[in-house]
Amino acid sequence: MRMSTNLIIGIVVVALGLLAYGSLFTVSETQQAIVMQFGEPKRVISEPGLSWKVPVFQNVQYYEKRVLNLDPPGENILLSDQKRLIVDVFARYRISDPLKFFQTVRSEETARSRLGTIINGRLRQILGNSTLAAVLSDERTQILRDLRENVDQETQRFGIALVDVRIRRADLPDETRESVYNRMRSEREREAAEFRAQGFEQGQRITAAADREATVIRAEAQRESSILRGQGEGLRTEILNNAYGQDPEFFNFYRSMQAYSASLGADSTYMVLSPDSDFFSFFNEGEGDGSAAR
Questions:
Q1: What was the pLDDT predicted at 279?
Q2: d(CA 183, CA 173)
Q3: Chunked mean pLDDT (size 10), the chain, 294 residues
Q4: In what order do the strands lie in the sheet with 40-45?
Q5: Contact at 8 Å (CB) between 65 and 32?
Q6: What's the half-sphere exposure (Cβ side, CA atoms, 13 Å) at 160?
Q7: Is the domain defined by 68-172 classed in CATH 3.30.479.30?
């Protein structure tokens, strides 16, 4: 009898343990849960901790409470200025309403697909009204703000709150990039040729001004030198005239000595002149007074 009672107590304890195990569940800080009964949501649990459910008849669907990342593939978008641009965006979102999320998309995989489609659609719509210059300038901040607001309004009906969306990369397609590069190179070559022409023209003006100034300086120098030379010649003539007036005989002698020195200074100088020539007058005088013998 006692053994039968212990067995019954053990069965009851095991049953209660299984009942507690099937009835209790834990929601962590990074999760939120929906209690389901036969596929229908019964209760949403957003706070972490220990909770309960009806065993066998109910089960729990868990969803992330943390911010999730989405990295959709890049899109080839035609801008308003007919420029094509490959735009790669990424988004961060969280499940703000688990019940609405379950009723509309059910799983995170489906939510990623729907959210990626919405982002790319709104991105095409907004960038389709923008130019390449706007995307690459400070207007990009306003474009991202408009994109975030439009996508957030669209995703609220799925129980998703958009935290942020950013353009990671905005590149031109290869053929467009090559065309832009060639156009930029042609523009730079044109500017370089224009700068070279302007530099050559300025160099010509500087050279002409320098030549003109040099000509003026040389003319002034020649004029000054001619004036000084004339003044020197006049002073020389005046000195010679004064010297000649003081002693004409000595002056003639001095001039003759200078002529002898200039004409007979070389070792191989030959002169054919008459002995009675005025050039040898002082030599002849020397022979008459007997100086030649000495």
A1: 62
A2: 15
A3: 65 62 81 90 88 83 92 84 84 92 90 90 88 82 88 91 87 72 86 92 92 92 91 85 76 74 64 64 52 34
A4: 40-45, 31-37, 58-64
A5: yes
A6: 33
A7: yes
Q: DSSP for 71-127?
A: -PPPEEEE-TTS-EEEEEEEEEEEES-HHHHHHHT-SHHHHHHHHHHHHHHHHHHHH
Q: Alpha carbon of 258 to those of 41, 182, 265, 285: distances in Å?
A: 139, 84, 10, 17
Residue 97: predicted pLDDT: 93
- Nearest-angstrom CA–CA distance, 112 and 75: 16
Structure tokens at 236: 């020389």
pLDDT at 290: 40
DSSP letters for 175-237: HHHHHHHHHHHHHHHHHHHHHHHHHHHHHHHHHHHHHHHHHHHHHHHHHHHHHHHHHHHHHHH
Q: Please state the length of the chain.
A: 294
Please report, for the chain, the start and end positions of each structural domain, with discontinuous segments joined by +.
2-64, 68-172, 247-288
> If residue 133 lies in a helix (H) or strand (E), which one and from where to where?
helix 132-135
Place of tokens 């031109």: 172
Question: Which of 97, 99, 87 lies closest to 43 in space, CA to CA?
Answer: 99
* HEC-encoded secondary structure of 5-56: HHHHHHHHHHHHHHHHHHHEEEECCCEEEEEEECCEEEEEECCCEEEECCCC
Q: Are 86 and 76 in contact (CB under 8 A)?
A: yes
Residues 6+ apart with CB under 8 A from 87: 74, 75, 77, 123, 127, 167, 169, 170
